[in-house]
Specification:
By secondary structure, this protein is α+β, with helices and mostly antiparallel strands. It is built from 21 helices and 16 strands. About 55% of the residues lie in helices and about 10% in strands. This is ABC transporter permease. It is found in: Cell membrane.
Length: about 750
């Protein structure tokens, strides 16, 4: 019989081996499916960005290579808390619509006053009055297909204009933007972290499943060696047995990956869900993953044969395990030092490869340090406690710490990942905020001095047509400076009347501040004899008009401390600000109407507000929260399964010992308590350590993004508490396993 036939024969006659093989296949299937899903995420973001490339998100990198045929401007609009991508176009140089190659999903090029919208935006246009939304874009003449949308529910409007209606920032192009899109950097980072954090618990589950029959298989193989089987034959038997289960598991993982991709398509990211076709991997990478994971499992099984191959008598008769050396503790600080160096040099090197390698080493160091910690806990039990269950648990932890730690390995990694994530999230949330100098309800459009008056005039005409009393005003931006050249100092100032500043800004001015003529308001009363006005930092500066007073006001927000307010009447004669912001007040009832009034004359310039300033921040935070919850749930389930299987395997490995103890009169409850202590107490110590390391890693990763301090939340303790709970839940299988041993004759072993 060849090795495969022997493996099939063993699976047929041995129920426990068959159970172990099934669980191993399930573990490999889970690992393969997760890796295939996580590996495809960067490709999925690249696919969705490729479809949206024509929308001009990376327009800054496009240039007209030849005579320009098209003016294009891309901006973001908002309606009722939803983001709208607005693409404004105009034909130039005698170009005709037929001379422009349309991107996939774009049915036609709209003419002036026309627009082509996505299906989701079309439904919004039909459900709302024109003054709230429709008048921003023009007459709808077509619908964008899925091939032209980042995600199915994306709100997009392709709006046509004449060249003179386009904003001054429109790009001259020969065609719509094209090229090769880049994957989302954040999701790429998260996918690598997910592979590292979730793959290891999956492999721990595989290893725990394989250990269900470890002792029996070791004795069987040792008997074959003593009967004359060569090391190569024994190795081939194990390879065949492991390859069978691991290969079936890998194929199952490949088969379930479309279902996982389908589920992932419903998880929003960056404002929307996915198309099923987004989740595609190169065939070569799929083949590599499907082959690599079973190969790793087979290699692990072969490496576990060292004792059987070297001395089969030890495997059949037992042997004394060597104590673990203290040098194992050096693995963690060594990996931490590597991670620290990688984090501190990441900005200079411009990559995260070394950071991910350091994270992988930290995760791997747990497998080296964990058994030593388990052995130390066992030694404490033996020295201090004298209850039978404590002594049994302590002796087990002391004699075989590697096997005892196996049930905690997945939990440790889950706690590490959870602590790391819950360290980063509160800090990111604390960073959310900020905005312009204007009140939260104001809308504003940045433009220049030449176009500002036109936008104000047309916007106010539309507001009157819509029956609104609000009026848009032009707010210039200048600098109050002193000194010349490199020694020049100063700060920004907004040019607006005191009455407008009271209504439109967050400076906290009141009507009492507006008496007494033109003034300059700031955090301190400036010495206007020392300061001059200029429209750009390096430009020629002129003194303010004589008689202008300086008044100190305390801004309501600290981010306004370096900005001043200067009355237009205080500017030198003939001075016109180069940069201007058109600002309009709103109420909750008319905010969308005022936005529509500004959108027409703005012709593609983005209309901002504090709400919109926070939109991207809140979207990113929502994505991170969602990914964190999903990752922690997955890691917790894998950890709980691996703990349960490892505990059951521990009982199976010691059937003779437990059977003898029961035959000698030891109650099952004492043995069950000992097994629960074996699983729970080392897990408690290890999870506390994993939580501390996770917090430190989170601090290190955050330092790559921002140099400010980290915000610690009580929620960072949650993974430790949940980890201990999962360990106790996994250990609960010990009682049924012990009763199964009690029910079977000891002679069966």
């Amino acid at each position: 019989m060849n090795s495969l036939q022997i493996a099939l024969r063993v699976l047929k006659v041995d129920r426990r081996t068959r159970t172990s093989a099934i669980l191993t296949a399930v573990g490999v299937a889970v690992a393969t499916g997760l890796v295939l899903l996580l590996a495809t995420l960067p490709f999925a973001t690249q696919n969705r960005e490729q479809r949206a490339l024509w929308q001009g998100a990376q327009l800054y990198s496009s240039r007209a290579d030849g005579p320009a045929k098209l003016l294009l401007d891309s901006s973001k609009d908002y309606f009722d808390g939803k983001e709208i991508v607005r693409v404004d176009v105009a034909l130039t140089g005698g170009a005709t619509p037929g001379s422009i190659q349309l991107p996939p999903g774009v049915p036609q090029l709209p003419g002036p006053g026309e627009t082509v919208v996505s299906p989701a935006l079309g439904r919004l246009l039909q459900a709302n009055p024109a003054e709230r939304l429709g008048d921003r874009f023009g007459k709808p003449v077509g619908s964008l297909g899925e091939d032209g949308l980042r995600f199915p529910e994306q709100l997009v409007a392709l709006t046509g204009h004449t060249p003179d209606q386009m904003s001054e920032n429109a790009y001259p192009l020969t065609a719509f933007p094209s090229g090769k899109a880049q994957p989302d950097g954040m999701l790429m980072l998260l996918s690598w972290v997910g592979i590292i954090v979730l793959l290891v618990p999956s492999l721990v589950l595989v290893a725990s499943s394989a250990r269900l029959t470890a002792a029996r298989r070791e004795r069987r193989l040792a008997a074959l060696r003593l009967a004359g089987a060569t090391p190569g034959q024994v190795t081939n038997m194990v390879a065949a047995e492991t390859t069978l289960s691991a290969g079936i598991g890998a194929v199952l993982g490949l088969l379930i990956s479309p279902a996982l991709h389908g589920l992932a398509s419903f998880v929003p990211w960056a404002g929307g869900t996915w198309l099923a076709s987004d989740f595609t991997l190169p065939i070569g990478l799929v083949v590599f993953i499907v082959l690599a994971i079973p190969v790793l499992v087979v290699l692990a099984g072969i490496l576990g044969l060292r004792r059987v191959l070297k001395n089969p008598l030890f495997a059949t008769g037992g042997h004394t395990k060597k104590p673990l050396h203290w040098w194992r503790l050096l693995a963690l600080p060594a990996a931490g030092l590597f991670f620290l160096v990688a984090v501190t040099t990441a900005k200079d090197s411009g990559g995260i490869t070394m950071v991910m390698a350091g994270l992988f080493l930290l995760v791997g160091s747990a497998a080296i340090v964990g058994p030593w910690v388990t052995s130390a806990v066992g030694g404490t039990f033996v020295r201090i406690w004298r209850r039978p269950s404590s002594l049994l648990a302590g002796r087990r932890l002391r004699d075989d710490p590697k096997s005892a730690y196996r049930s905690s390995a997945g939990i440790v990694l889950a706690v590490f990942a959870g602590s790391m994530a819950l360290t980063l999230l509160p800090t990111f949330e604390s960073m959310a905020g900020g905005g312009r100098s204007f009140v939260d309800s104001a809308l504003y459009v940045d433009t220049d001095g030449q176009h500002a008056s036109k936008i104000v005039e047309q916007a106010n005409a539309s507001l009157r047509k819509y029956g609104q009393s609000e009026k848009a005003v032009a707010v210039g931006e200048v600098y109050l400076v002193q000194g010349e050249g490199n020694s020049r100092t100063g700060h920004r100032a907004l040019v607006m009347t005191c009455a407008d500043a009271v209504q439109l800004t967050r400076f906290g001015l009141t009507a009492d501040n507006c008496t007494g003529g033109p003034a300059v308001f700031g955090e301190t009363a400036l010495d206007l004899a020392q300061f001059k006005v200029t429209d750009n930092w390096e430009g020629q500066a002129s003194p303010v008009k004589s008689g202008t007073r300086a008044e100190a006001v305390r801004p309501s927000d600290s981010d306004l401390s370096t900005t001043s307010i200067i009355d237009p009447a205080a500017l030198p004669d003939g001075f016109t600000p180069k940069y201007v912001t058109v600002v309009a007040p709103t109420t909750d009832a008319n905010r969308e109407i005022v936005r529509t009034a500004l959108a027409g004359p703005a012709a593609g310039e983005e209309i901002g507000s504090r709400d919109q300033h926070l939109f991207n921040q809140q979207t990113e935070l929502g994505d991170l929260r969602r990914v964190t919850v999903i990752g922690l749930v997955a890691a917790g389930i894998l950890a709980g399964c691996s703990a349960a299987v490892a505990t059951a395997g521990s009982v199976m490995d010691r059937r003779r010992t437990f059977g003898a103890l029961m035959a000698a009169g030891t109650p099952v409850r004492v043995l069950a308590r000992a097994l629960r202590m074996e699983a729970a107490l080392p897990a408690l110590v290890a999870t506390i350590g994993a939580g501390i390391v996770g917090v430190l890693v989170g601090v290190g990763l955050f330092s790559m993004v921002d140099e400010r301090g980290i915000v610690l939340s009580p929620w960072i303790l949650a993974p430790v508490v949940l980890g201990v709970g999962v360990a106790l839940l996994g250990a609960s299988v010990c009682t049924p396993a012990l009763k199964r041993v009690q029910a079977e004759p000891l002679a069966d072993e």
